[in-house]
Queue: 2 jobs
Job 1
Amino acid sequence: MEKRVHDTIFVGGRWVTPVTGRVISIVSPATEEVIGQVPDCGADDVGRAVAAARAASDWSQVDPSERASVMDRFADEIDRIAGDLDTLVSSEMGMPITLSRMANSVVASTLLRYYAGLARSLQWEETRAGAMGATVVRQEAVGVVGIIVPWNFPISLLFMKLPAALAAGCTTVIKPSPETALSAYMIAEAAAAAGVPEGVINIVTGGVEAGQALVEHVAVDKIAFTGSTAVGRTIAARCGELLKPVTLELGGKSAGIVCEDADLFASAEQFVASTLVNTGQTCYASTRVLAPRSRYTETVEAITAIVASLRVGDPLDADTHLGPLVTERQRDRVEGYIAAGRSAGARITTGGVRPPDAARGWFIAPTVFADVDNTMTIAREEIFGPVLSVIAYDDIDNAIAIANDSEFGLAGTVWTADEQRALDIARRIKTGTFGINGYLLDLWAPFGGVKSSGLGRELGPEGLSAYLHSKSIYQPGSL
Ligand code: NAD
């Protein structure tokens, strides 16, 4: 792949040279080769982008149907570059290409069109008969939104925010993750080609410093963040002090409850998609698998057989199930958790090592731990790698108690032939989302977490509300 070197950032509809001279190298996790370079921006560059976003605030006054037309054109541009964009994400962070084709460009264009539709149909202003007279209730854009996203699903996580913000009439400054900054340039190019007015979308590359500058900036009216719980907590604390609205999509440690009547082999593909998708680097993965004690041995064997059959390798190969981990640091972290599981007395039934045939790249064999207790570190902390922990339960009440015994509450799954029972269990899990016999995120429905998994919701009409303030205009005595 030809090296992509960017020495400008996208501000006010133009490619401008950043103040900073620092750069970030983007390294392929599969080959360990440098595949690109972007500026590592600081507060000055963030400031310029925020000023451009503020100067473009007329976007909120544009007729919503016109905003929607711009968004539709943006979606068309994303569709046009879909193949290249999906391949680039796989190259920069190691997502298997078959997943990338389902989880990047198509999510972006679908959500742009969806929120364009909501912009057209929303009742932006209504007159209500109030207690003291008529009141006009208006929906107004929150203002300038700072969007900070991680590397694991760089495009879909960005577009779980950007289209709703655009539909609401907000202008944006986006800070992609350093690991996946190359694909953000393709988004900027698509926005420019679609004729998104200058300043409505600005993209500033960088790391912690740029992210902090965005949170701190007085002219940023809201922060939309997806990332780790630790960073989310510091951003929430700072936004609290600044009284700045913030939505947070954070970590998870979800439980997949395997009922006695479940046949995992009947839905092996769904099982893998719910537990190990994106090489386990997925916030909603059900990485704690709860198995009935009466069928524990055979459930562990079934899971082990499924996981051991997965192909680990080149993310650009369509036959690959699992790619490398995103960085060497991430692989070290995952190996640390594997060591912690071993020393706590959990038993590895498959994996636990680097694949012997991978000469380069940050690969790790998908790993299953049996005999896991829910108090062990591997059952409590988010590993963010291809590591499953199988925990025994006595009865369904016990399974639900174990599932809920977690700091997190983002997702979860249940595996059973009895749909009614599945719904009953789903209602009792303290979580923002849940899947029955699989987990496929519904782009039309609200997504988000409870407890340490986050604040607020994205997607669906609720996702649009997060970028709107309501204003009440009282007309006393007018009734
Ligand atoms: P991270 O929190 O380290 O970084 C996320 C983003 O925040 C990056 O762009 C980073 O540069 C920036 N950042 C880091 N420190 C910052 C600070 N102090 N102020 C402002 N910005 C800062 O997370 P990561 O390692 O890139 O991503 C993995 C994490 O994201 C996992 O914990 C995962 O569960 C979580 N995640 C959550 C969801 C969800 O929807 N709930 C989805 C995907 C990933």
Note: The chain has 16 helices and 23 strands.
Job 2
Amino acid sequence: MVERAETLRETSAWRRLEWHRADVRHSRLRGLFDGDPGRGERLAAEAAGLYLDYSKHLLTDETLELLRKLAAERGLPSRIAAMFRGDRVNVSEDRPALHIALRMPRSRSLVVDGVDVVRQVHEEQDRINALAEAVRSGSWVGATGRPIRTVVNLGIGGSHLGPALACEALRPYATAGVRYRFVSSVDPAALAEAIRDLDPAETLFVVVSKTMTTLETLTNARAAEGWLRDALGGEVQLQRHFLGVTAHPDAAAALGIPPDNVFRIWDWVGGRTSLCSAAGLTTCIALGPDGFRELLDGFRAMDEHFVTTPLGGNLPAIAGLIAVWYRNFLGAQSTAVVPHSHALRLLPPYLQQLAMESNGKRVTASGEPVEVDTAPVTWGGEGTDAQHAFFQLLHQGTVLCPVDLVALARPATGDSEGHDLLAANVFAQAAALAFGRTAEELDALGVDEREIPHRVLPGDRPTSVILARLLRPATLGALIAFYEHSVFTQAAIWEIDAFDQWGVELGKELALRLTPELGEGWKRELLHDSSTNALVRRYRQLRDAGD
Ligand code: F6P
């Protein structure tokens, strides 16, 4: 008889964690710190320029030990090795997930299905670098012979969020004289707003779409082409104004982008992990080849740390296991990320796609229902603005929501006085969330007793602080890779396929069917559910009614 494999909840570590949860539920962070003066130094780890303080979490050394056992029982080290070896870890799409190959050095080789993917990557990177140099130096000119002053990235999801984050975060390292704009939404207002003040003769569009079938991106590319034609005339060489990035060069050719202007990605690059590929073309133009290389170096430093470091000191593994602890044992339904850095304000939306598209799954890699809850909702916003918006709920609300506070020790630009204030806020928020303020303390401060219940902060609100010296390209690379591998760690525990996203397909299919039905010429009967039919009719009425 074939023995049934042990399920997640049957593993001995899982069962022990369930027992152990009761002990931790009753402990308080004040008590954990008072009883262990070294906790703040000890529960911290450092790698690739990032310092992770995880001491203000609702856990003990025993919790961490049991989480590491769980990781071992779920085969985390061998799953990491499989991803880095090029195994087909994207099971439902039957392909490897080789974003890690995008940042391997030229001297490495990784042969998958008989092809050295590292060689392929570097050949393409050389083309990207040459193009970036040409645009930056002004030797790439538009149809009328003028150099490019604005690069507009047209893409959505992974073809937008990474480049937008990187260009915004690393603005001090970007070329002077060239502006960068990003259009993702199919709302015509988005493109109109982005090009309103641009000169078509000096504008270069980078159309990024792995599939080249994404309607939002294709619609914006056609609209951009129309804008160029109107301004520059139908006969001029529009190819001086369009570059394409895709895994399907034929589809780019169908859009009218010539082969020399098309940069390759491969089906083994996931959209949400594609920043290091040609999908980062706009970023490479902004930073230049050296800056882009430094970004890749940062990713690689974290990759190497993730592969080689035992779980006890492994930053992404620690973060991923702590996330599992909150989600599955303490019932947290959401997790927030708050970069106290204006430059990193696009980190939360970037991480939303990374975490929720990867781990928002209900079946395991083998298609069985997952026995436990998977990805929490990821949300967040820029600190300190967030403190004046949603932090009230974090301090005194009734939800448990672990928060990542991201901080930098030095400002990239601007004065250091304002920067110290920013950092002070990070440390203050982490302490206030963890330790709160008791009724006795308020009483001792002379607070009116009627106010005391309203002013008590219960504490025990968990945070990680991720601290780096300065936001350089390498810092951003390490930070993103840290989150990629944390997400991978969680997926490994849940045994889900973190690299597919079938959930988004149905909506796309229905939108495709509905679009012509909204058109004025549609006369046939609507065959949707009664709500959708009513919405379509009402929409047409509202649209077509006179002013
Ligand atoms: O939202 C679904 C998705 O497939 C994402 O995974 C991807 O990043 C995005 O659409 C854009 O896809 P593409 O790069 O193929 O246009």
Note: The chain has a mean pLDDT of 96.
